[in-house]
Amino acid sequence: MREFIVEADGGSRGNPGPAGYGAVVSDAATGETLRETAEYIGVATNNVAEYRGLLAGLRAARALDPAATVHVRMDSKLVVEQMSGRWKIKHPDMKPLAAEATRVFPPGSVTYEWIPRDRNKHADRLANEAMDAGAQGRQWSESASTAALHAPPRASAAAEPPGDAAAGAARVRDALAAGRAAARGVPTAAGDGAGGQVGDAETDSFAPAGGGEGDGDGEDSADARVGGAQGGDVEDGAAARDGDVKAGAAARDGGAQGGAVAPARDVKGGADARAAQAVASPGWAPADMGTPATFVMLRHGETPLTPQKRFSGSGGTDPSLSDVGREQAERAAAMLARRGTIQAVVASPLARTRETAGIVAGRLGLDVQIEDGLRETDFGAWEGLTFAEVRERHPDDLNAWLASPDAEPTGGGESFAATATRLAATRDKLLAAHAGRTVLLVTHVTPIKTLVRLALGAPPESLFRMELSAASLSVVAYYADGNASVRLLNDTSYLR
After folding, report:
1. Burial 343-370 (b: 16+ CB within 10 A, else e)
2. pLDDT tens digits, residue range 424-462?
3. Reported pTM
């Protein structure tokens, strides 16, 4: 089955004002651009133009292969969240467009992902070409388009996002130079860093080898909040006016806002420099650090609640795996057996994780150790409900929960702050018991995201910016000096 990537965008010069959209269809396996489309649509709002771009991109993909699966990437959080079913669609101009978009491909064939605006440049240029053409009294022409000439080189779906590796490496080199200069007392300019990876140079069988797919699964935790969507969109204010997202959440999840930009860059630049100083001795890490303890974290396979995107924590019905979930566990087990590096298996006490762990451990010839600290967050009265149902029944509690990691779900559930405290203690316990070993932890969305967040030293809201699919693998290595290296996140390549 073919898989396409659709990147779409739309804009309005006036909101409402002269508007246009652009969309690009590419082959997920090769990254090859297969189709471009754009159109000037007259006077419309940004959001309507974005929906028109989505619809055009889906139609272009269907014309290429109606049996394909499609992964849509857009920088409009509003469209991504609404089409993923996490936000309601109330605006009368957008409802029919969204409904039409759901009918282009069969249910389950299309997934959605939010991407930053600078990773959607090709579609953005097409939309602007369409608006420029409209201003000149003509329609956009594919033959005259130069959007692809200016777009960054495309990578395959299994590769790192275009430019990220090179930019990250450049930032690391700059930070290393700054670190060495600082150690000699030489003044340096402040860095502008933005997340270059500073890892150890040791070859590892779990080093990132291609990103996994994101299915927007809302079961188990923070995925239910924003489904792994990263950051926000400049139209979030419009979304709040439409009643689709609380203003506070939009402000928190939104993109760059006011004076927060410069301080954030300074902090990231400082973090790059500090990380560089920590590894500026010969090699990527001090020679006496020894073999790290490596946590290979496997999220359990699907349960009957997973496709329904229902809260499923440690206080609910404790569902077992579905047939799909058991097949996913078998595939994960086969892949881990081929690698042959797992030395111990530790699982959450819940049924879905014990079942997943049993399938994997049986293939590896290992026993399963149960660790209560790896259990999922308790979602209280929200257990078994969809995000929309919680919003309808407990709106005030949900808003408080979205605003603070200290807030508990209705009915005395567990806050994310409490979950983090529990996971930090569990991590330390397991590190003491498995120093220098590679351990498979079979657990849930929130525990895995929390361990990754703690390893990165990232704020609590970073939980909302990670996608974690059923039966996906993530890896963190822990060194003797207390530092950690995130080596993999949400790999599902073995499920395809």
Report:
1. ebbbbbebebbbbbbbbbbebbeeebbe
2. 999 999 999 999 899 999 999 999 999 999 999 999 989
3. 0.49
**What is the structure's pLDDT at 289?**
60
- pLDDT tens, position by position, 95-111: 999 999 999 999 889 99
Q: Which two tokens stand for residue 75?
A: 């920088």
User: What pLDDT is stored for residue 1 in this prediction?
Assistant: 76
Instruction: Report the DSSP beta bridge partners of residue 368.
Output: 345
Structure token digits, residue 386: 């969809």
Distance CA 457, CA 466 (A): 14
Task: Give the pair of three-digit tokens for residue 179.
Answer: 């670190």
Side chain identity at 57, as an amino acid letter? G
Strand partners for 11: 20
The alpha-helical segments, DSSP class H, found in 242-350 are: 247-253, 261-278, 323-339
DSSP summary character for residue 461:
G
| Residue 409 confidence (pLDDT) | 94
Q: How many CA atoms lie within 13 A of 463 on its CB side?
A: 27
Residues of the chain below pLDDT 70: 149-289
Q: For residue 239, how many other CB atoms are within 10 A of its CB?
A: 27
Please provide the DSSP assignment of 64-98 as one string: H-TT-EEEEEES-HHHHHHHTTSS----TTTHHHH
Burial class (CB in 10 A: 0-12, 13-18, 19+), 42: exposed
* CA atoms 288, 290, 292, 293: torsion sign: negative
* Rounded (10°) angle between helices 261-278 and 164-183: 70
Under a CB-based contact definition with an 8 Å cutoff, are residues 44 and 12 in contact?
A: yes
Residue 243 confidence (pLDDT): 33
Choose among 137, 149, 148, 151: nearest CA to 40: 137
Q: What is the pLDDT of residue 406?
A: 92
Residues annotated as part of the active site: 300, 376
